[in-house]
Amino acid sequence: YSLLADMTRRGRPSSLSSLPLAASYEQLQLAWESFVRSECEQHPLVLVLEDMQWADATSLRIVDAVIRHATDLPLVVVALTRTGTGACDERTLVHQKEAAQVHLAPLSRSAAARVVRFVLGPDAAGAAVMEIVQRAEGNPFFLEELVRARLQGGGAIPETVIGAVQARIDG
Fold first, then answer.
1. Cβ neighbours of residue 96 under 8 Å, at least 6 residues apart?
2. Geometric angle at alpha carbon 91, from 39 and 73, rounded to 5°
3. Tell me: the pLDDT tens digits for 62-115?
4. For the segment 10-52, what is each residue's pLDDT rounded down to a tens digit?
5. Rounded-to-integer distance, Cα 87 and Cα 13, Å
6. CA 121 to each of CA 17, 112, 115, 131, 140: distance values in angstroms, whole numbers, following the listed order
7. Within a 10 A sphere around the Cβ of 26, how many other Cβ atoms?
8. What is the DSSP letter of 90?
9. Residues 58, 29: contact at Cβ < 8 Å?
């Protein structure tokens, strides 16, 4: 699996597999920096990195290096992470001098109920709406998955986010 290949969708660099690990890392970092610099020379670039809580340390170091070396480029990096997972909290990229953090609060119960009623319809049973709202605990993704499960009529709605995702995969 290659980070560069996945992010650029341009194929797997075949020469990295035969290099020692340290050399592979350095080559991958240089290749990624070169790619970003090349894109920025053609047009401003917004790099959106989702689910950073799942990022491995090597990927974070590469992204961090690109940001540190790209101060003269028209580049904006938007890194999205879920807090409280413990996976990325200590290794965020917010130490950069021009970084800004935006913390999103959970959806309020009333906002979540409006979303559920909008999707299920105004005639949705109040108990069903409240069950979904309570189970989601303000998590918009989980709320969406619970509503999807209810719409698909699979009986009981999942207890956890992982259960909801697993039900969707199995479904």
1. 67, 68
2. 20
3. 888 888 888 899 999 888 877 665 555 444 565 566 777 788 889 999 999 999
4. 444 444 455 455 567 788 888 889 999 999 999 999 999 888 8
5. 28
6. 54, 14, 10, 16, 18
7. 12
8. G
9. no
Q: What is the pTM (predicted TM-score) of this model?
A: 0.59
Adjacent-strand bridge partners of 48? 78
Spatial CA neighbour of 8 closest among 61, 54, 62, 53: 62
Determine the pLDDT at residue 90: 45
- Average pLDDT of the residues in 144-152: 87
Would you say how long the chain is, in residues?
A: 171
> Residue 168: phi, psi to the nearest 5?
-70, -40
Give CA separation, 76 vs 52, 57, 90, 143, 161, in Å: 16, 21, 22, 30, 31
How many whole angstroms separate alpha carbon 57 and alpha carbon 36? 20
Q: Is 48 helix (H, G, I), strand (E, B) or coil?
A: strand
Phi, then psi, of 122 in degrees rounded to 5: -65, -20
User: Has residue 5 got a pLDDT over 60?
Assistant: no
